[in-house]
Every structure is written in structure tokens, then in C-alpha cells.
Structure prediction request, 241 residues.
Amino acid sequence: MPSLSSLSVIGHAVYHTLKISVPTVIEAHRGTLTASVCNQRLRSWAEELLRKSGVQVQLENEENIHLEQAPFVIVSNHASLYDIPVLFASLPLNFRMAAKRELFSTPIWGRALQSSGFVQIDRSSPGAAYDALHEAGKLLRERGLSLYVAPEGTRTPDGSLGKFKKGAFGLARATGFPILPIAILGTRGIHARGSGVVHRGQHIRVRILKPIFADAIGDLAQTADAVRREIEVALLDLSQE
Prediction:
């Protein structure tokens, strides 16, 4: 059973998610919602969740992000729900996420996700998922937004790095977006998949790897495996430092 401390953190996260979702839905209905307002809300939401959890984030190799090369297809390992606020709070980029379709049916929150430009992915249909990513790429380019995709498809159940799916890499090749690989160490220590416990005060390291340009992407499966190996090596390096 979660402790009172964990319940407090979870309740705080739910409250602040609603706090940004409700005005987003209302403004979208009125036709007054803008990408810049969504960017601001997402960053403030992420910072507030990390503050409540006592999380400190160390961003490394930020020089690998060249803003003139944006938008990017951002890919990383996916160890925890906390990967999301960590990236929104630490990256000097405005971006949206690809998320499973089921989340968009959540009352209020799902409408806010859709209204602010998050991308629905149908995991049961790889073809439909790719089409959704490709269509989203056009809109994101118009808005100057990058797209984050977790190529494992879901959070790791045991801390190991799963196989990378090809969708994000096909999107990068089709749209011309560079791939920006990122290794995240420590988020599973905050909140692991299937656990109701939130461990406060964790130190998270986010290492930015060198971008891979679309014209360098050949075979998608080979590219996905190569990026996976780069992230795996970076995670091992981070864990040993």
C-alpha cells in the first residue's frame, strides 16, 4: 500500500495535470489556444511535479542540441512515468509526445492532450501508428515543435532496455527531422512500473547523444538497433560514473 508521502505526491500530480488540462480544453473549444501557451503550461507542469518529488535533473551534453536543426524526433529509453516531466523540464526544446490511443479517452486530460498537439498511437496497428506519426510530423513542423517517441513502446518492467520499434526512425527519414537520442538514468528509482510508491529526492541524469540526420538513415531496423546500442552504452557509462 502506498505511503501517505507517495499518495501526497500522486495527488499533487493529478491536481496539477487537471490545472493545466481544464483551461487547455476550454481555450481549444473557444479557438484561442496557442502552441506557445501549451509549451509554457507543459514546462511549468513538469517543473512542479519534479519540485514536489524533490527530483534534481542533471542535463549533460546540451551542446549536441543545435536549435537551428530542430524540429527533432526525440527518442530515449523509457523507465518510468517520470521520464516525461524530466524531459519537458530539462530539454531546451518545445515538443509533443506520441502516446497510446487509450490515454486520449481519459476525461478532460485526453481532450487536453489532443488539443495541445500530442499524437495518438494505435499499438494494435503498426501501419495506422506510422500514418499517425507521419501526419503529425507535418503539423509539428509548421508549429516548430519536435516530437518525442519512446521506441520501446512502453515502460521497462524490470529496468532492462527493450527492443526499439522502427516507427520513430521511419518518421525521421520521411520528414527530414534529425533523430535526437537521449539516455535517462534514475527515473525508475522514483517510480517503477506497477508500483504505487514514489521515492522522493532522486538525482536524474539526462545525457544528450549526437543527432542522426535523416539522410544518414538507411535500413530502419538497423538504424533502430544502432540507436538502441548507443543509448545502452550511454546508460552503462552513466551507471558506472
Remarks:
- The two ends are 34 Å apart (CA to CA).
- The CA atoms of residues 47 and 180 lie 22 Å apart.
